[in-house]
């Protein structure tokens, strides 16, 4: 119990570093700008056709593609760039609690910040679209128009018919929120590993490589690069759906009962186990981390 209090105390100290921190303020400003950009087309479309939206629909549409997931995860760099956090209180906590509690606090901070960041993004989408939205658990006429008429593809608002037929807005929002949280947490833990192994630049580079790997394993890009015939494109979709962490975080790249793509629980399990493995590696690396205090 005493060790848990120390972990919480160190975590609180990390959050106190947010005060007057320009980098953290910039991260939230950029996250808000991201929400404005991703919701603008939905708002303009609804106003043009004088229709309403379910309040979570813009969030669902925004994260229907891998590119938006990449942009959202990149902003986490601002929060975790200087991990592990070293300050004037670090020697005291290391002497009193040891490396185990100190690293436990770093992990708790990563998990908490990732959840807060995703919750902030969700709330911003809801606030921006609230004047044109309703809260009922049903898909709107805007979503039906975008999905069934093909207009969504023309204006880059991918309202998936499969999504609307297989789920309800609240369920879909919760599933996408969990997938996004797991993917961003995976990104953050990988960044922490390379921060400990190399340096801050190594951590940033690892995030870039992970996202580039996911982007290049997009089924459409793979098909164009390898000139895969249309008859074999399905196999390419299935393979990339299983081996790409970005595709695991993309809602429509899942099996809803009639294909061989991973099911949602498969992605939850794979991403969750990968995160736990990263945490185990972080704890191992912390035992031989060389502290440098100036």
Automatic annotation (TrEMBL):
Keyword set, alphabetical order: Membrane, Transmembrane, Transmembrane helix
Parts of the chain that traverse the membrane: 24-46, 58-81, 101-130, 176-197, 203-222, 265-282
Protein name: Uncharacterized protein
Organism: Claveliimonas bilis
Phylogenetic placement of the source organism: Bacteria, Bacillati, Bacillota, Clostridia, Lachnospirales
